[in-house]
């Protein structure tokens, strides 16, 4: 699966549009993760507990996005983006979305 953030794909031409595809996950911070994050924040610098949580959530949303596009018969996703919203304190939604297309080399 080719995934790009641009609206076109140099070297390829879009032969079919399947529409919007998405991958969504909702994650919460654990009590232990919050304690670890609080301890790290006392010392400053990178908060690896939260960085790992964010990376895991984005990776899961990305994988779901690709799976959704594959199920539609696409071989590429253009205009891919991430979005994140806090649903409630400590619970975050991460969304990966884009346009599923079929492409072929020019």
Automatic annotation (TrEMBL):
It comes from Labrys neptuniae. InterPro entries: UPF0145_dom_sf, UPF0145_YbjQ-like. This is UPF0145 protein ABXS05_24945. The lineage of its organism: Bacteria, Pseudomonadati, Pseudomonadota, Alphaproteobacteria, Hyphomicrobiales. Belongs to the UPF0145 family. It holds the Pfam family YbjQ_1. PANTHER family: UPF0145 PROTEIN SCO3412, UPF0145 PROTEIN YBJQ. Signal peptide: none annotated. HAMAP family: UPF0145 (MF_00338).
């Amino acid at each position: 699966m080719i995934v790009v953030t641009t609206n076109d794909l140099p070297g390829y031409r879009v032969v079919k549009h399947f529409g919007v595809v998405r991958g969504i996950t909702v994650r919460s911070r654990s009590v232990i993760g919050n304690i670890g994050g609080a301890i790290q924040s006392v010392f400053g610098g990178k908060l690896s507990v939260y960085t790992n949580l964010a990376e895991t959530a984005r990776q899961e949303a990305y994988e779901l996005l690709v799976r959704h596009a594959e199920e539609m018969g696409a071989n590429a996703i253009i205009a891919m983006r991430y979005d994140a919203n806090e649903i409630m304190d400590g619970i975050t939604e991460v969304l990966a979305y884009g346009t599923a297309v079929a492409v072929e080399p020019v």
